[in-house]
Amino acid sequence: MKHLALLLVAFSASVCLFTSCTKTTTPPDDKHLTKKEILVQKPWQVDELIHNIGGINTQYIRGGINTTGIDYNLLRFVFKADGTGSHTDQFGNTYSLTWKFLTAAEQDLELTVNLPTTTTYQWNLVEIADSTLHATVKIKDKSGDILESFRMTQVK
Question: Which positions make up the signal peptide (predicted)?
Answer without folding.
Answer: 1-19
